[in-house]
Amino acid sequence: MRVLFFSSQTYDQDSFTQATAAPGLELHFQPARLTEDTAALAAGHEVVCAFINDDLGASVLQCLAAAGTRLIALRSAGYNHVDLAAAKRLGLAVVRVPAYSPHAVAEHAVALILALNRRLHRAYNRTREGDFTLHGLTGFDLYGKTVGVVGTGQIGAAFARIMAGFGCQLLAYDPYPNPELLALGARYLSLPQLLRQAQVISLHCPLNDATRHLINARTLADLTPGAMLINTGRGALVDTPALIEALKSGQLGYLGLDVYEEEAQLFFEDRSDQPLQDDVLARLLTFPNVIVTAHQAFLTREALAAIAATTLDNITRWAAGNAQNLVEG
Ligand code: NAD
């Protein structure tokens, strides 16, 4: 059975070729992003393996189904980019990797917090220029601070455990409270209450109709002035132009983003020799108290190995008529 990987990078090829694939699976790696223009490359491949910035809207799914694809194997946990109703109509099964390493993403959120707080991005540049001054680098003790966790599933819980280790007070917001957070002493509050009390807020909920632009001009007004916001969830959880206004006024004191609403056209590509066309991202990158990483929170050796193992297992089981990790609309 032929499997075509879209948006594949060298680290994908490495992790999938090191994992043990069932005999009979032929893996083909394609660096191009899946779009209407590239969907034809999948002709003759029963399985398409896609990542988060691939286009899995109705018209692309239609092209894939017409050319013989029967399974979309997502090598991600999130599936907000798939038109599940169209997939069902076209008889395409969709599987995903529900958990690979929650620690990878949680630890990256913490890396953003520490770098923003202690201004490591500025200190790194300064010492390389021979400037050994400390002005503007004052941080704060995380010990004793109040941290708000929005979405307390696997990643939110891993994040909460780390922050509890720093001696932070935990607040949480999730329609389904997690007993593990309660055991850590977290208090579940409404989102406005959490935003009013937390000095650091980290988003770990999925993107859906209820969470799109959860952080917007109205909710940003609830923040403790100067608070830090971290988003490793999905770009559209926040209204980015509203973040820029809040950064300009000082209402938002620090911003760490691993995801961006318009990232599909930019992330995972080297565009360093071209003018940045996205004016919102360009403005964000001018702030000294903002760090943007290009959707790398998942990128650890352990997570890549787990993604490869589960994806290959998902494909093998689906082929045997015993599908697991199906995503249904
Ligand atoms: P999970 O399903 O274990 O947890 C999600 C939690 O969000 C659940 O507890 C759920 O009840 C909660 N939730 C649902 N709707 C909510 C709402 N309206 N408000 C608050 N909470 C809500 O998922 P997870 O494995 O912890 O992953 C969380 C998200 O992280 C994924 O959906 C994905 O978008 C993102 N993610 C990002 C990366 C990255 O590399 N940056 C990697 C993996 C996952």
From TrEMBL:
One of its GO terms (molecular function) is D-lactate dehydrogenase (NAD+) activity. PROSITE patterns: D_2_HYDROXYACID_DH_1, D_2_HYDROXYACID_DH_2. Pfam families: 2-Hacid_dh (PF00389), 2-Hacid_dh_C (PF02826). SUPFAM superfamilies: Formate/glycerate dehydrogenase catalytic domain-like, NAD(P)-binding Rossmann-fold domains. Residues 3-327 form the D-isomer specific 2-hydroxyacid dehydrogenase catalytic domain. It comes from the Bacteria. Transmembrane segments: none annotated. Keywords: NAD, Oxidoreductase. Residues 110-297 form the D-isomer specific 2-hydroxyacid dehydrogenase NAD-binding domain. Belongs to the D-isomer specific 2-hydroxyacid dehydrogenase family. This is 2-hydroxyacid dehydrogenase.
